[in-house]
Amino acid sequence: MIEPDQQSGGSRPSAAALGPHSFMTALAEMVPVPVIVFDSVGGIVISNRLATQLLVVSPERMDRRVLTFDGTDLWDVIEAKRRSGELLFTEVSTRIRTSANRSVDITFVVSTLGGDEGNAGGVFAMAYDAPDERDLVGQHPHPLDGTLFPQGLQFAPIVRLLAEDLGADAAVFAEIDPDRPLSARTIAAVQDGRALEGFEWSLPGTPVISATGKRAVTVSQGLRGAFPDDTWAAAEGFDSFTAIFLTDVNGRRAGILAVYSRDPIEAPEATAGMLRLFAARLLPALRHLIGDRSLRESEERYSALFERSHLPMLLIDPASTQIVDANDAACEFYGFDHDDLTAMSALQINTLAPDDTREELARAANRSRNYFQFHHRLADGSVRDVEVYSNPIAVHSRELLFDIVHDVTERHRTESELERYKQQLESLLQRRTDDLMRTNVELQQTTAASDAFYENVGAEFRTPLHTIIGFSDLLVRGMVGDLNDEQVRQIDMIRDAGRQLAALVDDVVELSRLQTGVERCEPEEFDLAELVRSIAVGVRPTAEARQLAFEVTCPESAVEVHTDRNKIEQILLQVLSNALKYTSEGAIAVEVEDDGATVTVRVVDSGVGIEASELPHIFDEFRHVARQVSGTHEGTGLGLAVCRRLAHIIGGTIEAESEPGKGSTFTVTFPRRCVEADVP
């Protein structure tokens, strides 16, 4: 008999227990997963140390049992399968309530044990997989690990034992790259009782490729027909195959344990169960092998990075402040050879007080800071400004600080110079700003004085000019007596000269105001088409009196603009005045176009035109273009110059195209919304 152990909740052999029970108990303790053995009526006769986590007090039996999350006894689930004849290396998956009061999904491998004289025997249950609790299955150390897998991790004897126990012709244990699931590295392989040295197992073409998402794969017979590309099976005449996958700590496939046979598999469940037992025993060693290689590769990468880096790197013991190691770049930077530098303390190269240096090392060690700015002393006594990136690292089970040192002395010197130049520039800029402010005030005063001057000069000119023009009109109309024809002609010349001089004064005053920059765009919303039509009403009688056709072309819908109405009107009146002045026959046309963002007004005439040599200068001030029409005069030479400045004020342009004898086209283009421009 096996008596329950009251402290562990499991069972231990009593003094009277003999043979099979003792062997079974020892075997259960060897397996690194929970193992429970039930007798024929459901009593727990054996449970290993790991199974203790699965034993809880049953309210019905008042002893420790394995219960599912809803209180059902695991024995009841197993008994139902045994009655249906399914219990021979069968998987039973259910959610188990643990002694820590957690619910865990566990898959058991369950098999019946033989009884006496045909009576039903007990049941063997092994919890080989618990996806939600990786610390429950396959993670616990075992006393036999050091002897079963000594230095060098010799797996071949275990694989040979597996093949012998299953009566298989070949067995292979391979590591799988989780990132390349069809790439395998053979750890151990046997065939016909002997180990295969240098054997490389190729997974493509094997049944493994059909096992996506599965934990196991079995081909009971017909292997060569179902998988003709399995090169090993084809060469050796294997007819059946069984494999179990092993996972890493993250649940990804990390290895595979497989067997090949030339004969069909008569008991697939038993074969798979045996494979699971061996896989569970090999899993810790495989994970150790993978972890050890990963650590070795990591150290090799670190070593290569450390030695070959052009940046100074140090390994420092935060407790003792000793410089444990330094790369060639660090030795070159500090000016010490490797032996001297690694015999020094971090206190010797840092200009901080010793207590402050120890405090900063402690901050780096506990990860509260990883970036520092220090002053480090070199072998020649000079001090350099450095930035240090420091992080803890475990090297050969020793906690050290891995420091990367950047020399920023020149950068700091440059930054200081830049700061000094910045301050000088700001001071200079402030002085220049003050000068500009004073100049601006003076300019405003000068502009105001200039405006007043031009206004006064205009007024002084206009008063006598209006007197001359007024009395000339009186004389011509005979208000002071009869005049002969010659006298009338002479007085007309005086009146025309006065009018021309008055127009010149007006243009000069207007141009001076525009040049000072005091004139600004004063926008308002209006319909440009309506403005053009109203201007045409005033111009049309003059054109008809001179027997000129006058046409206006505008869009039917309103052309809404937001700009300076008076300046647009002033420009159009000046351009139309020039068209009337220099067109003796033919027609004058005004065209309005709207493209959405800008609007365009064209004034087209059939007048005398402008010579090509004169065309570039028609908008210059006081530029008289040589084009005469009978009964007209050249004007002041300022009208088009004023138009150009007005167009610039509203953010637009005015351009001219002409051909002598065929007429001219003046095009005014401006944005729908006024944008003030700098007037040159």
Helix content: 25-40%
The biggest sheet, with number of strands, parallel, antiparallel or mixed sense and barrel status, is: 6 strands, antiparallel
User: What is the total tally of β strands?
Assistant: 27
Q: What is the molecular shape?
A: elongated
Rg on CA atoms, Å: 53 Å
Strand order of the largest sheet: 12-11-10-15-14-13
CATH superfamily of the largest domain: GAF domain
Structural description of this entry:
- The chain is of the alpha+beta class.
- It folds into five domains: 2-129, PAS domain (Beta-Lactamase); 145-298, GAF domain (Beta-Lactamase); 310-406, PAS domain (Beta-Lactamase, 2-Layer Sandwich); 412-513, Up-down Bundle (Methane Monooxygenase Hydroxylase, Chain G, domain 1), CATH 1.20.58; 519-671, Heat Shock Protein 90 (2-Layer Sandwich).
- The longest helix has 68 residues, at 409-476.
- It starts with a strand and ends in a 9-residue tail after the last strand.
- Mean pLDDT is 81; it is low at 1-19, 139-153 and 628-633.
